[in-house]
Amino acid sequence: MSLVAERVCVDLRGAVLLRDLSLAAECARVLAIVGPSGAGKSTLLRVWSGEQAFDRGAVRFEGCPIDRLPPTALARMRAVLPQQTALRFPLRALEVALLGRLPHPGRGETRRDRDIAWAALELAEVAHLAERLAPTLSGGEQQRVQLARVLAQIWEPTVEHPRRYLLLDEPTANLDPGHAVRIMGRLRRFARATDTALVLVVHDLGAASQCADDLALLHAGRCVAHGAPAEVLTPDRLEACFGARFDVVPAPSGIGLAVLPRPPDDLPP
Amino acid sequence: MTPVPQGMSRRSDRRVRSVLAVLVALVVLGFSLELAVGAAALDLPRAVACLVAPDPACDPGDRYILLVLRLPRALGAMVVGAGLAVAGAAMQGLFRNPLADPGLVGVSSGAALGAALAIALDRALPAVPGEFAQPALAFAGGLLATWIVHTLARVRGQTSVVGLLLAGIAVSALAGATIGLLGYLADDRQLRDLSLWLLGGLGGLTRPVVLVLVPLVGLAGALLWRRARDLDALLLGEAEAFHLGVDVERLRRRVIAEVALAVGVCVAFTGIIGFVGLIVPHLLRGLVGPRHRLLVPAAALGGAALLLFADAAARTILAPAELPVGILTSLLGAPVFLALLARARPTEAP
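YS: structure for the whole thing
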C-alpha cells in the first residue's frame, strides 16, 4: 500500500521543476526526501498532496489516480504540513488543532474531535499552550501547533481509508535540537503504530539518516538515488549534488550517519 | 488518549456568551428606540399594547405611524445592518484580511451606477412600480459589477485575491467616473436624488420593500453561515484549506455570489451605507474570536443594533428633518476605524 509518483513531470512555463520522477512512499515507513535547494523536494510534496498539477506521468494513492479523489476524500487520508503557515487571525492553539478535524463528519465540533485535537497537541508538546493565541507563539511553537493540526487530521483511520499519509515539509526547521529529536522520534513511532506513510522533506542529512527507513536524494528535478540511508548518502554523490565535499561516518550513537560538509580549501585559518 | 481537561476554554466560552447576550439586549433596545423616537414621539408601552391587543381606545394615528411607518423601517434597518455586517465578516474571512470590506468586489459601486442610471433615465423607464424600478437597476448593477470583477480576476480557472482587489478597484473607478458623468448631465432634481441615494438612507424601507428584503438577505446570510467552517479553514491559507478538503475555488465563487446578493439587495433599497460591513465584524472578531460559526451571528446582531441606533439618531438629530443614515455611520465609523488601526496588534495587522 503506497503513494506513488510515476514518471512525473512538472513544467512551469519553461522552468522544469520535476523531470520523469518516480518514487513511492510505503505505509508504516518513513521516507526522507533530501537534496539541494531547488531540487524539487517541495514540488514533489505538492504534487503528492494534490495541490500541484503535473504535466506528464501519474500519481496514485493505493492505485487510485489522484485526480479521481475529491478534496474531502484526499483530506481524510493525507495531511500536509507546509514549510510555513502564517496565521494572522487570533485563533487559539486548540482551535487550530481542531481545524485538522474539518474533513471528518464532526467538522471539528464534537467532543471526540476535541479529545483528538488535545492528544495531537500533547504529541507535539504544545498542550500547555492550548489556550494561547497562535499568532502570539514563537516560531517553533507555532510550527508544533500546525504539526498537531495535521496529526489530528489523520489521527484515526476512516472506513474508506484505513491507511494514511503524512507529508511534512521541513517539520523541524524552526525547532531547537531537543524538540527536533524528540518529535522526530514520536512521529516515527506514530507512523509505525498507525500504518501511516510518513514523508519528510529534510535539510539536515544526518537527521534524515537517523529517522528515515528510506531516503530519496533529489537533484535538478530527478531522483538520483533511493534506498537505505547508508547506501544513498555516499560522499561522491553528495559532492555531485551539493557542490561541496562531505565526510560521511557512522554516528557516534550508532544510529544513522554523521554527515559533515568540509569547508572550502581556500577558507582562511 | 487523555481527554481534554475539564474547564478548558471555559473562560472564553463564558465571555462569548456574555458578548452575545449584550448584543441581543442592544438589538432589543435599538428596536424599541427606533419604534419610539421620531417626528411624532410615541408612548411606546401604550402603543405596543395597542399593537398586540387592538382595542377601540387606540389612537388610529399612532397605530398608523407604528404599523405602517416605523415597524417596517425598524425591521428593515435590522436586516440591512445584519446583512452588511455578515457580508463584511465573510469578505474578511475570504480575503484573509481583517480590514476587508464587502464593497471590495465592486458590488456597491456597481449598485450606485445602476441607481444613477435609474435616476437619469427616470422618464424613459418602463412602468415598473415606482419604488422598485431604481432598486432593481441598482441590484442588477451590483451583481453585474461583481460578475465583471470576478471574471477579470480569473486566470486559467484560478481566481487570485490580488486580481480580485485590482479588478475591484478598476471597476469601482469606472463606475465612479460614469456616475460623475451622469451627475454632470443631470438636472437639479435628479442631481439631488442621486446624491441623496449615494448618502444612504432608510427612508425607502416600506412594507412591500421589507417583504422582499427579509427573505433575500436572510437566505444569503444563512448560506454564508453554512460556510463558517470552510471559511475558518481558509484563515490558515489557501493551500492549507485545500489540504483540509475545502474546494477553495468553489468556496470563493459561492461566498462572492452570496455577498453580492446580500449587499446588492441592501444597497439597492438604501443606498450606500458605509463602514457597517467593515467595523462591526472587525470589532466583534476581537470579542468573540475569528471562528465564523460565532462571528457570523455576532456580526448579524451587531450590525442590526448599530443600524437601529444610527437610524434612530439620524431621525432625531435634525427632527423633523432626517439625516441620511449613511452620513452618520461614516462619521462614526471612520474614527473608530482609525482607532482600530492605531492600536492594532502586530498579529492583526492587515
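YS: worth flagging: Residues 177-194 of chain A form the longest helix (18 residues).
IM: good catch. Also Chain A touches chain B through 47 residues (CB under 8 Å).
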